[in-house]
Amino acid sequence: MITEQHILSAFDRDLESVQAMIMKMGGLVEAALSDAAAALETQDEALAEQVRKGDAAIDALEESVNAECARLIALRGPIAGDLRTVLTVMKIATALERSGDYAKNLAKRALVLGQLAPIPGAAGAIRRLARQVGLLLKDALDAFIARDAGLAEDVRQRDLEVDQMYNALFREFLTFMMEDPRNITACMHLHFIAKNIERVGDHATTIAEQVIYLTTGTLPGGDRPKADLTVEGQ
Amino acid sequence: MITEQHILSAFDRDLESVQAMIMKMGGLVEAALSDAAAALETQDEALAEQVRKGDAAIDALEESVNAECARLIALRGPIAGDLRTVLTVMKIATALERSGDYAKNLAKRALVLGQLAPIPGAAGAIRRLARQVGLLLKDALDAFIARDAGLAEDVRQRDLEVDQMYNALFREFLTFMMEDPRNITACMHLHFIAKNIERVGDHATTIAEQVIYLTTGTLPGGDRPKADLTVEGQ
Protein backbone atom coordinates (compact mmCIF):
# COMPACT_ATOMS: atom_id res chain seq x y z
CA MET A 1 0.00 0.00 0.00
CA ILE A 2 2.76 2.39 0.91
CA THR A 3 4.47 1.72 -2.39
CA GLU A 4 1.29 2.32 -4.36
CA GLN A 5 0.66 5.54 -2.45
CA HIS A 6 4.21 6.59 -3.26
CA ILE A 7 3.79 5.85 -6.99
CA LEU A 8 0.49 7.68 -7.12
CA SER A 9 1.83 10.83 -5.54
CA ALA A 10 4.94 10.79 -7.71
CA PHE A 11 2.67 10.82 -10.76
CA ASP A 12 0.55 13.59 -9.28
CA ARG A 13 3.62 15.64 -8.48
CA ASP A 14 4.96 15.24 -12.02
CA LEU A 15 1.56 16.05 -13.46
CA GLU A 16 1.35 19.21 -11.38
CA SER A 17 4.73 20.24 -12.69
CA VAL A 18 3.70 19.91 -16.37
CA GLN A 19 0.38 21.58 -15.62
CA ALA A 20 2.32 24.52 -14.18
CA MET A 21 4.30 24.66 -17.44
CA ILE A 22 1.04 24.69 -19.42
CA MET A 23 -0.31 27.57 -17.33
CA LYS A 24 2.94 29.49 -17.82
CA MET A 25 2.68 28.87 -21.59
CA GLY A 26 -0.94 30.03 -21.52
CA GLY A 27 0.04 33.20 -19.68
CA LEU A 28 2.73 33.96 -22.26
CA VAL A 29 0.33 33.37 -25.17
CA GLU A 30 -2.39 35.58 -23.62
CA ALA A 31 0.17 38.34 -23.03
CA ALA A 32 1.55 37.99 -26.58
CA LEU A 33 -1.93 38.29 -28.08
CA SER A 34 -2.85 41.28 -25.95
CA ASP A 35 0.53 43.00 -26.48
CA ALA A 36 0.43 42.44 -30.25
CA ALA A 37 -3.05 43.98 -30.44
CA ALA A 38 -1.91 46.91 -28.28
CA ALA A 39 1.18 47.38 -30.48
CA LEU A 40 -1.10 47.54 -33.51
CA GLU A 41 -3.35 50.13 -31.91
CA THR A 42 -0.64 52.39 -30.47
CA GLN A 43 1.85 51.66 -33.26
CA ASP A 44 4.40 50.65 -30.66
CA GLU A 45 7.20 49.09 -32.72
CA ALA A 46 9.24 48.08 -29.70
CA LEU A 47 6.28 46.16 -28.23
CA ALA A 48 5.59 44.43 -31.56
CA GLU A 49 9.26 43.47 -31.77
CA GLN A 50 9.12 42.12 -28.22
CA VAL A 51 6.15 39.87 -29.10
CA ARG A 52 7.98 38.64 -32.19
CA LYS A 53 11.05 37.69 -30.22
CA GLY A 54 9.07 36.34 -27.28
CA ASP A 55 7.59 33.51 -29.38
CA ALA A 56 10.83 31.53 -28.99
CA ALA A 57 10.12 31.17 -25.26
CA ILE A 58 6.66 29.74 -26.03
CA ASP A 59 8.15 27.28 -28.53
CA ALA A 60 10.78 26.24 -26.00
CA LEU A 61 8.10 25.63 -23.37
CA GLU A 62 6.20 23.38 -25.77
CA GLU A 63 9.32 21.31 -26.29
CA SER A 64 9.82 21.09 -22.52
CA VAL A 65 6.21 20.00 -22.01
CA ASN A 66 6.62 17.29 -24.66
CA ALA A 67 9.88 16.05 -23.18
CA GLU A 68 8.50 16.10 -19.65
CA CYS A 69 5.32 14.23 -20.69
CA ALA A 70 7.36 11.58 -22.51
CA ARG A 71 9.54 11.19 -19.41
CA LEU A 72 6.45 10.96 -17.23
CA ILE A 73 4.89 8.25 -19.40
CA ALA A 74 8.10 6.21 -19.56
CA LEU A 75 8.83 6.55 -15.85
CA ARG A 76 5.37 6.28 -14.28
CA GLY A 77 3.58 4.14 -16.85
CA PRO A 78 0.21 5.86 -16.37
CA ILE A 79 -2.88 4.09 -17.72
CA ALA A 80 -6.56 4.94 -18.26
CA GLY A 81 -7.49 8.42 -16.99
CA ASP A 82 -3.93 9.33 -15.97
CA LEU A 83 -2.57 8.52 -19.41
CA ARG A 84 -5.43 10.40 -21.03
CA THR A 85 -4.55 13.43 -18.91
CA VAL A 86 -0.89 13.39 -19.97
CA LEU A 87 -1.83 13.08 -23.65
CA THR A 88 -4.29 15.96 -23.21
CA VAL A 89 -1.50 18.10 -21.75
CA MET A 90 0.53 17.48 -24.92
CA LYS A 91 -2.42 18.44 -27.12
CA ILE A 92 -2.97 21.64 -25.15
CA ALA A 93 0.71 22.52 -25.53
CA THR A 94 0.40 22.12 -29.31
CA ALA A 95 -2.70 24.35 -29.39
CA LEU A 96 -0.89 27.01 -27.34
CA GLU A 97 2.22 26.86 -29.53
CA ARG A 98 0.09 27.45 -32.65
CA SER A 99 -1.73 30.29 -30.88
CA GLY A 100 1.64 31.84 -30.07
CA ASP A 101 2.53 31.69 -33.77
CA TYR A 102 -0.64 33.61 -34.61
CA ALA A 103 0.20 36.30 -32.02
CA LYS A 104 3.68 36.58 -33.53
CA ASN A 105 2.14 36.92 -36.99
CA LEU A 106 -0.14 39.68 -35.66
CA ALA A 107 2.92 41.52 -34.30
CA LYS A 108 4.66 41.26 -37.69
CA ARG A 109 1.65 42.63 -39.51
CA ALA A 110 1.31 45.43 -36.93
CA LEU A 111 4.77 46.60 -38.02
CA VAL A 112 3.79 46.48 -41.71
CA LEU A 113 0.52 48.32 -41.07
CA GLY A 114 2.47 51.12 -39.42
CA GLN A 115 3.72 52.06 -42.87
CA LEU A 116 0.26 52.24 -44.44
CA ALA A 117 -2.58 54.76 -44.13
CA PRO A 118 -4.69 53.68 -41.12
CA ILE A 119 -8.21 52.24 -41.48
CA PRO A 120 -10.52 54.11 -39.09
CA GLY A 121 -11.65 52.02 -36.14
CA ALA A 122 -9.85 48.89 -37.28
CA ALA A 123 -7.18 48.68 -34.58
CA GLY A 124 -9.76 49.14 -31.82
CA ALA A 125 -11.97 46.41 -33.27
CA ILE A 126 -8.98 44.06 -33.54
CA ARG A 127 -8.07 44.79 -29.91
CA ARG A 128 -11.61 43.95 -28.76
CA LEU A 129 -11.54 40.70 -30.74
CA ALA A 130 -8.14 39.83 -29.26
CA ARG A 131 -9.41 40.56 -25.73
CA GLN A 132 -12.41 38.26 -26.20
CA VAL A 133 -10.23 35.49 -27.54
CA GLY A 134 -7.67 36.00 -24.76
CA LEU A 135 -10.48 35.45 -22.23
CA LEU A 136 -11.58 32.29 -24.04
CA LEU A 137 -8.05 30.95 -23.84
CA LYS A 138 -7.77 31.82 -20.16
CA ASP A 139 -11.11 30.18 -19.34
CA ALA A 140 -10.28 27.08 -21.39
CA LEU A 141 -7.07 26.63 -19.38
CA ASP A 142 -8.84 27.33 -16.08
CA ALA A 143 -11.43 24.72 -17.09
CA PHE A 144 -8.59 22.27 -17.69
CA ILE A 145 -6.94 22.87 -14.31
CA ALA A 146 -10.30 22.62 -12.49
CA ARG A 147 -11.53 19.76 -14.76
CA ASP A 148 -14.65 21.91 -15.14
CA ALA A 149 -16.74 20.58 -18.06
CA GLY A 150 -19.33 23.32 -17.52
CA LEU A 151 -16.81 26.12 -18.00
CA ALA A 152 -15.39 24.25 -21.00
CA GLU A 153 -18.84 24.06 -22.59
CA ASP A 154 -19.22 27.79 -21.90
CA VAL A 155 -15.99 28.45 -23.83
CA ARG A 156 -17.30 26.41 -26.75
CA GLN A 157 -20.46 28.48 -26.91
CA ARG A 158 -18.68 31.82 -26.52
CA ASP A 159 -16.46 30.99 -29.48
CA LEU A 160 -19.61 31.56 -31.55
CA GLU A 161 -19.59 35.22 -30.48
CA VAL A 162 -15.97 35.49 -31.57
CA ASP A 163 -16.93 34.07 -34.97
CA GLN A 164 -19.67 36.68 -35.23
CA MET A 165 -17.27 39.50 -34.35
CA TYR A 166 -14.94 38.18 -37.05
CA ASN A 167 -17.74 38.05 -39.63
CA ALA A 168 -18.67 41.67 -38.89
CA LEU A 169 -15.05 42.74 -39.33
CA PHE A 170 -14.76 40.80 -42.58
CA ARG A 171 -17.69 42.73 -44.05
CA GLU A 172 -16.38 46.05 -42.75
CA PHE A 173 -12.91 45.59 -44.26
CA LEU A 174 -14.48 44.51 -47.55
CA THR A 175 -16.46 47.76 -47.64
CA PHE A 176 -13.33 49.83 -47.03
CA MET A 177 -11.58 48.02 -49.88
CA MET A 178 -14.42 48.60 -52.31
CA GLU A 179 -14.70 52.26 -51.38
CA ASP A 180 -11.06 53.04 -52.08
CA PRO A 181 -8.48 50.73 -53.70
CA ARG A 182 -5.76 52.50 -51.71
CA ASN A 183 -7.19 50.72 -48.63
CA ILE A 184 -6.73 47.27 -50.15
CA THR A 185 -3.25 46.40 -48.89
CA ALA A 186 -3.96 47.54 -45.33
CA CYS A 187 -7.31 45.74 -45.29
CA MET A 188 -5.70 42.52 -46.53
CA HIS A 189 -3.36 42.56 -43.54
CA LEU A 190 -6.23 43.40 -41.20
CA HIS A 191 -8.24 40.53 -42.66
CA PHE A 192 -5.46 38.06 -42.00
CA ILE A 193 -5.01 39.43 -38.48
CA ALA A 194 -8.74 39.03 -37.74
CA LYS A 195 -8.76 35.51 -39.21
CA ASN A 196 -5.71 34.53 -37.18
CA ILE A 197 -7.24 35.79 -33.94
CA GLU A 198 -10.41 33.88 -34.78
CA ARG A 199 -8.21 30.79 -35.20
CA VAL A 200 -6.79 31.27 -31.70
CA GLY A 201 -10.42 31.13 -30.58
CA ASP A 202 -10.72 27.79 -32.40
CA HIS A 203 -7.69 26.54 -30.48
CA ALA A 204 -9.32 27.64 -27.21
CA THR A 205 -12.34 25.60 -28.30
CA THR A 206 -10.08 22.62 -29.03
CA ILE A 207 -8.69 22.88 -25.49
CA ALA A 208 -12.23 23.13 -24.11
CA GLU A 209 -13.23 20.02 -26.06
CA GLN A 210 -10.25 18.15 -24.66
CA VAL A 211 -11.40 19.12 -21.15
CA ILE A 212 -14.88 17.81 -21.91
CA TYR A 213 -13.37 14.58 -23.23
CA LEU A 214 -11.19 14.29 -20.15
CA THR A 215 -14.03 14.79 -17.69
CA THR A 216 -16.91 13.05 -19.47
CA GLY A 217 -15.07 10.49 -21.60
CA THR A 218 -16.69 11.63 -24.84
CA LEU A 219 -15.96 14.43 -27.27
CA PRO A 220 -18.83 16.93 -27.71
CA GLY A 221 -21.20 15.40 -30.24
CA GLY A 222 -21.25 16.43 -33.89
CA ASP A 223 -19.45 19.38 -35.38
CA ARG A 224 -18.46 22.17 -33.07
CA PRO A 225 -20.76 25.18 -33.37
CA LYS A 226 -19.35 27.25 -36.20
CA ALA A 227 -20.38 30.64 -37.41
CA ASP A 228 -17.77 31.77 -39.90
CA LEU A 229 -20.24 33.03 -42.47
CA THR A 230 -17.57 34.30 -44.84
CA VAL A 231 -17.35 30.92 -46.53
CA GLU A 232 -21.00 30.07 -46.16
CA GLY A 233 -23.13 32.98 -47.23
CA GLN A 234 -21.05 35.59 -48.95
CA MET B 1 14.35 -14.09 -24.33
CA ILE B 2 11.28 -15.61 -25.88
CA THR B 3 9.05 -13.39 -23.77
CA GLU B 4 11.00 -10.27 -24.71
CA GLN B 5 10.85 -11.24 -28.37
CA HIS B 6 7.12 -11.69 -28.01
CA ILE B 7 6.67 -8.27 -26.38
CA LEU B 8 8.80 -6.57 -29.01
CA SER B 9 6.89 -7.98 -31.92
CA ALA B 10 3.55 -7.21 -30.31
CA PHE B 11 4.64 -3.57 -30.10
CA ASP B 12 5.90 -3.63 -33.68
CA ARG B 13 2.66 -5.15 -34.89
CA ASP B 14 0.60 -2.53 -33.08
CA LEU B 15 2.86 0.22 -34.40
CA GLU B 16 2.46 -1.05 -37.94
CA SER B 17 -1.28 -0.97 -37.51
CA VAL B 18 -1.33 2.72 -36.43
CA GLN B 19 1.18 3.58 -39.14
CA ALA B 20 -1.20 2.05 -41.66
CA MET B 21 -3.94 4.29 -40.27
CA ILE B 22 -1.66 7.33 -40.66
CA MET B 23 -0.96 6.43 -44.29
CA LYS B 24 -4.67 5.99 -44.93
CA MET B 25 -5.32 9.40 -43.36
CA GLY B 26 -2.54 10.90 -45.49
CA GLY B 27 -4.06 9.41 -48.63
CA LEU B 28 -7.47 10.86 -47.78
CA VAL B 29 -5.99 14.32 -47.10
CA GLU B 30 -3.97 14.30 -50.35
CA ALA B 31 -7.09 13.29 -52.29
CA ALA B 32 -9.21 15.94 -50.53
CA LEU B 33 -6.69 18.66 -51.38
CA SER B 34 -6.39 17.61 -54.98
CA ASP B 35 -10.16 17.11 -55.42
CA ALA B 36 -10.96 20.47 -53.83
CA ALA B 37 -8.53 22.22 -56.19
CA ALA B 38 -10.01 20.34 -59.16
CA ALA B 39 -13.53 21.25 -58.04
CA LEU B 40 -12.48 24.90 -57.97
CA GLU B 41 -11.02 24.73 -61.45
CA THR B 42 -13.82 22.81 -63.14
CA GLN B 43 -16.56 24.29 -60.94
CA ASP B 44 -17.65 20.79 -60.03
CA GLU B 45 -20.13 21.32 -57.20
CA ALA B 46 -20.66 17.62 -56.56
CA LEU B 47 -16.93 17.07 -56.11
CA ALA B 48 -16.64 20.06 -53.76
CA GLU B 49 -19.57 18.70 -51.75
CA GLN B 50 -17.89 15.29 -51.60
CA VAL B 51 -14.69 16.83 -50.16
CA ARG B 52 -16.76 18.73 -47.61
CA LYS B 53 -18.51 15.63 -46.41
CA GLY B 54 -15.40 13.46 -46.62
CA ASP B 55 -13.66 15.44 -43.87
CA ALA B 56 -15.63 13.53 -41.24
CA ALA B 57 -13.78 10.33 -42.20
CA ILE B 58 -10.44 12.09 -41.68
CA ASP B 59 -11.55 13.38 -38.28
CA ALA B 60 -12.73 9.91 -37.29
CA LEU B 61 -9.38 8.41 -38.30
CA GLU B 62 -7.56 10.93 -36.10
CA GLU B 63 -9.67 9.87 -33.15
CA SER B 64 -8.93 6.22 -33.90
CA VAL B 65 -5.20 6.92 -34.12
CA ASN B 66 -5.30 8.72 -30.76
CA ALA B 67 -7.27 5.93 -29.11
CA GLU B 68 -5.04 3.25 -30.59
CA CYS B 69 -1.84 5.07 -29.53
CA ALA B 70 -3.16 5.50 -25.98
CA ARG B 71 -4.04 1.79 -25.89
CA LEU B 72 -0.60 0.92 -27.22
CA ILE B 73 1.17 3.02 -24.57
CA ALA B 74 -0.94 1.61 -21.73
CA LEU B 75 -0.63 -1.99 -22.92
CA ARG B 76 2.97 -2.17 -24.14
CA GLY B 77 4.60 0.48 -21.96
CA PRO B 78 7.06 1.61 -24.65
CA ILE B 79 10.04 3.69 -23.55
CA ALA B 80 12.80 5.72 -25.25
CA GLY B 81 12.67 5.50 -29.05
CA ASP B 82 9.49 3.41 -29.14
CA LEU B 83 7.60 5.90 -27.00
CA ARG B 84 8.92 8.76 -29.07
CA THR B 85 7.63 7.02 -32.19
CA VAL B 86 4.13 6.61 -30.78
CA LEU B 87 4.00 10.25 -29.69
CA THR B 88 5.20 11.27 -33.15
CA VAL B 89 2.38 9.27 -34.73
CA MET B 90 -0.11 11.28 -32.65
CA LYS B 91 1.48 14.56 -33.72
CA ILE B 92 1.33 13.52 -37.38
CA ALA B 93 -2.34 12.63 -36.99
CA THR B 94 -3.03 16.12 -35.62
CA ALA B 95 -1.16 17.75 -38.52
CA LEU B 96 -3.15 15.65 -41.01
CA GLU B 97 -6.47 16.46 -39.34
CA ARG B 98 -5.74 20.19 -39.58
CA SER B 99 -4.69 19.76 -43.22
CA GLY B 100 -8.00 18.02 -43.88
CA ASP B 101 -9.80 21.03 -42.40
CA TYR B 102 -7.98 23.31 -44.83
CA ALA B 103 -8.97 21.11 -47.78
CA LYS B 104 -12.58 21.22 -46.59
CA ASN B 105 -12.38 25.00 -46.34
CA LEU B 106 -11.02 25.12 -49.89
CA ALA B 107 -13.99 23.07 -51.08
CA LYS B 108 -16.42 25.44 -49.35
CA ARG B 109 -14.82 28.46 -50.94
CA ALA B 110 -14.82 26.74 -54.34
CA LEU B 111 -18.62 26.62 -54.08
CA VAL B 112 -18.78 30.32 -53.17
CA LEU B 113 -16.41 31.29 -55.99
CA GLY B 114 -18.70 29.55 -58.45
CA GLN B 115 -21.16 32.38 -57.93
CA LEU B 116 -18.64 35.14 -58.65
CA ALA B 117 -17.01 36.34 -61.85
CA PRO B 118 -13.87 34.22 -62.38
CA ILE B 119 -10.34 35.64 -61.99
CA PRO B 120 -8.30 34.65 -65.08
CA GLY B 121 -5.66 32.05 -64.35
CA ALA B 122 -6.42 31.86 -60.64
CA ALA B 123 -7.87 28.36 -60.46
CA GLY B 124 -4.98 26.90 -62.44
CA ALA B 125 -2.43 28.58 -60.18
CA ILE B 126 -4.25 27.29 -57.10
CA ARG B 127 -4.27 23.77 -58.55
CA ARG B 128 -0.51 23.91 -59.16
CA LEU B 129 0.07 25.13 -55.61
CA ALA B 130 -2.16 22.35 -54.26
CA ARG B 131 -0.30 19.75 -56.31
CA GLN B 132 3.08 20.89 -54.97
CA VAL B 133 1.81 20.81 -51.41
CA GLY B 134 0.18 17.41 -51.93
CA LEU B 135 3.58 16.08 -53.01
CA LEU B 136 5.22 17.59 -49.92
CA LEU B 137 2.68 15.85 -47.73
CA LYS B 138 3.18 12.55 -49.52
CA ASP B 139 6.98 12.77 -49.24
CA ALA B 140 6.81 13.78 -45.57
CA LEU B 141 4.75 10.67 -44.81
CA ASP B 142 7.00 8.45 -46.93
CA ALA B 143 9.96 9.90 -45.02
CA PHE B 144 8.22 8.95 -41.79
CA ILE B 145 7.54 5.37 -42.83
CA ALA B 146 11.11 4.92 -44.13
CA ARG B 147 12.59 6.96 -41.21
CA ASP B 148 14.42 8.86 -43.97
CA ALA B 149 15.91 12.06 -42.51
CA GLY B 150 17.32 13.03 -45.93
CA LEU B 151 13.90 13.01 -47.59
CA ALA B 152 12.48 14.88 -44.60
CA GLU B 153 15.12 17.58 -44.98
CA ASP B 154 14.26 17.75 -48.68
CA VAL B 155 10.59 18.39 -47.77
CA ARG B 156 11.67 21.20 -45.44
CA GLN B 157 13.63 22.89 -48.20
CA ARG B 158 10.92 22.43 -50.84
CA ASP B 159 8.41 24.15 -48.57
CA LEU B 160 10.37 27.32 -49.40
CA GLU B 161 9.28 26.97 -53.05
CA VAL B 162 5.67 26.65 -51.90
CA ASP B 163 6.07 29.84 -49.89
CA GLN B 164 7.43 31.58 -53.00
CA MET B 165 4.50 30.37 -55.11
CA TYR B 166 2.16 31.72 -52.45
CA ASN B 167 3.93 35.09 -52.40
CA ALA B 168 3.59 35.40 -56.17
CA LEU B 169 -0.12 34.60 -55.97
CA PHE B 170 -0.60 37.13 -53.16
CA ARG B 171 0.84 39.89 -55.34
CA GLU B 172 -1.19 38.80 -58.35
CA PHE B 173 -4.50 38.79 -56.50
CA LEU B 174 -3.67 42.19 -55.01
CA THR B 175 -3.19 43.57 -58.52
CA PHE B 176 -6.55 42.21 -59.67
CA MET B 177 -8.23 43.81 -56.67
CA MET B 178 -6.65 47.20 -57.31
CA GLU B 179 -7.54 47.09 -61.01
CA ASP B 180 -11.22 46.49 -60.44
CA PRO B 181 -13.09 46.60 -57.12
CA ARG B 182 -15.56 44.05 -58.51
CA ASN B 183 -12.75 41.50 -58.19
CA ILE B 184 -12.29 42.12 -54.49
CA THR B 185 -14.64 39.50 -53.04
CA ALA B 186 -13.42 36.72 -55.32
CA CYS B 187 -9.79 37.64 -54.69
CA MET B 188 -10.35 37.61 -50.92
CA HIS B 189 -11.55 34.02 -51.14
CA LEU B 190 -8.66 33.11 -53.44
CA HIS B 191 -6.24 34.71 -50.98
CA PHE B 192 -7.57 32.63 -48.12
CA ILE B 193 -7.44 29.51 -50.26
CA ALA B 194 -3.81 30.15 -51.19
CA LYS B 195 -2.89 30.89 -47.58
CA ASN B 196 -4.62 27.72 -46.39
CA ILE B 197 -2.80 25.56 -48.92
CA GLU B 198 0.46 27.20 -47.87
CA ARG B 199 -0.44 26.22 -44.29
CA VAL B 200 -0.85 22.58 -45.34
CA GLY B 201 2.73 22.91 -46.59
CA ASP B 202 3.71 24.09 -43.11
CA HIS B 203 2.08 21.00 -41.65
CA ALA B 204 4.05 18.82 -44.09
CA THR B 205 7.16 20.60 -42.79
CA THR B 206 6.09 19.90 -39.21
CA ILE B 207 5.80 16.20 -40.07
CA ALA B 208 9.22 16.32 -41.74
CA GLU B 209 10.70 17.93 -38.64
CA GLN B 210 9.19 15.20 -36.47
CA VAL B 211 10.86 12.61 -38.72
CA ILE B 212 14.20 14.39 -38.32
CA TYR B 213 13.69 14.46 -34.55
CA LEU B 214 12.79 10.79 -34.55
CA THR B 215 15.82 9.70 -36.56
CA THR B 216 18.48 12.11 -35.30
CA GLY B 217 17.20 12.91 -31.80
CA THR B 218 17.25 16.68 -32.35
CA LEU B 219 14.85 19.08 -33.98
CA PRO B 220 16.30 21.00 -36.96
CA GLY B 221 18.21 23.95 -35.49
CA GLY B 222 16.81 27.46 -35.43
CA ASP B 223 13.67 28.64 -37.13
CA ARG B 224 12.40 26.63 -40.06
CA PRO B 225 13.21 28.28 -43.39
CA LYS B 226 10.38 30.70 -44.03
CA ALA B 227 9.67 32.78 -47.05
CA ASP B 228 6.20 34.25 -46.61
CA LEU B 229 7.16 37.73 -47.71
CA THR B 230 3.64 39.09 -47.41
CA VAL B 231 4.21 39.98 -43.78
CA GLU B 232 7.86 40.84 -44.15
CA GLY B 233 8.38 43.07 -47.11
CA GLN B 234 5.12 44.42 -48.37
| Major sheet summary line of chain A | none
What is the CATH superfamily label of chain A? Phosphate transport system protein phou homolog 2, domain 2
Shape of chain A: elongated
N-end to C-end Cα span of chain A: 64 Å
Q: Hey, roughly how much beta strand do the residues of chain A contain?
A: under 5%
According to DSSP, the number of beta strands of chain A is: 0
- The average pLDDT score of chain A comes to 91
Low-confidence stretches of chain A: none
**Coarse structural class of chain A:** mainly alpha
Into how many domains do the coordinates of chain A divide? 1
Percent helix of chain A, as a range, is over 70%
Compressed to H and E, one letter per element, the order of chain A equals HHHHHH
In terms of quaternary structure, the protein is homodimer
Radius of gyration of chain A: 20 Å
Question: How is this structure best described in words?
Answer:
- With 234 residues, chain A is an all-alpha fold.
- The first copy, chain A, has a single domain, classed as Methane Monooxygenase Hydroxylase, Chain G, domain 1 (Up-down Bundle).
- Helices cover 84% and strands 0% of the residues of chain A.
- Chain A has 6 helices and no strands.
- In chain A, helix 1 (2-42) runs parallel beside helix 3 and helix 1 packs antiparallel against helix 4 (122-146).
- The first copy, chain A, is elongated.
- The first copy, chain A, starts with a helix and ends in an 18-residue tail after the last helix.
- The model of chain A has no long low-confidence stretch (mean pLDDT 91).
- Chains A and B meet through helix 2, helix 3, helix 5 and helix 6 of A and helix 2, helix 3, helix 5 and helix 6 of B.
